[in-house]
Amino acid sequence: MKIALVQTRTPATHAAALAHVVPLVREAAAGGARLIATPECTNVVQRNRALLLPALRSLEDDEVVVALRALAAELGVEILIGSALVRREGSGAANRSVLIRADGSVGATYDKIHMFDVDLPTGESARESHAYTPGDRAVLADSAAGRLGLTICYDMRFPHLYRALATAGAQVMLVPAAFTRPTGEAHWEVLLRARAIETGSFVLAPAQGGFHEDGRGTWGHTLAIAPWGEVIGQLDHDEPGVLLADIDLALVERARSAIPALANGRDFALPVQPASEAAE
User: Fold this and answer.
1) Total structural domains in the chain?
2) Do residues 158 and 175 touch, judged by C-beta distance below 8 A?
3) Coarse DSSP helix, strand, coil percentages of the chain, rounded to the nearest 5 percent
4) Residue 70 near residue 26, CB atoms below 8 Å
5) Annotated active-site positions, please?
6) Alpha-carbon distance 219 to 279, whole Å?
7) pLDDT in tens, 150-169
């Protein structure tokens, strides 16, 4: 099975984002990919929330999502929009993955569970929860590339999510991202390889890369990782591009049989506070 991971440098408006991503998706389809995955924030990158939030639309009305649904049907491929920033039903906003079937229908959606609320040692800070409502459920989706576990970016730092997805049957973990450059350099590859090894799953991580119109810098370095933890494809840069890779689902069963960590897991009581500390 051939898949493609699209690396973008998404602009600050929806119209420009669409013009940016469509040629890359077409390139991926021309390369023979049956599942094409794009990064987090595929439809817009704009860190000025006063400009971003009024521009968000519902999933059904977002121009990038609508156009990529039509493109999937035209090309006869599945497209995983790594995430679209959209207005939620009711109120607020969501950072939402969207799996589009080869007929253009929406097969599954996933709202990012873990919000990137951090103060980095570099002085950079983020408060994703100020703009988006976190999701509250893990999501599996069947695709031409196998059973997918849908996650987004910061989720990768929470291994229990990936174990739950793998235990429920996920063979391929999708980790679309817009990773910061300092944390990307330090942690991007090692965390993704760890998630693959722990769960015996393929990990596919399409990324935003470079310096965006809004001044944000993202790490790029899109990766495809096999269940034994080896890198089977990578873009060793932060420029827009397409990574093609072949995945063989038989390798999932082989890795999980060799190291049956999913089967060997046990429930346990959580640690209690030491008596000396409790007395204080």
Assistant:
1) 1
2) no
3) 30, 30, 40
4) no
5) 40, 112, 153
6) 47
7) 999 999 999 999 999 999 99
